[in-house]
Amino acid sequence: MIIAKFIGKDGSQGFKKNKTYFLEVPDTSKSEWKIIIQNTAGAEWCPYNSLETFLKNWKVLKVV
Asked: Cβ–Cβ contacts within 10 Å for residue 10, how many?
């Protein structure tokens, strides 16, 4: 699990800017996307092509 603060555009993919989320990375082996993150408490999810792209929208606080 990843605990991270969303720093991207408010409302993007349903995420709220400056809100902290508990995220998980589902199995992406059958996906064209390299990284898919999903909110563990809701339906929000977002695909990313690279770790660099993910980090432009998220500030990782902790990995557990």
From this structure: 10
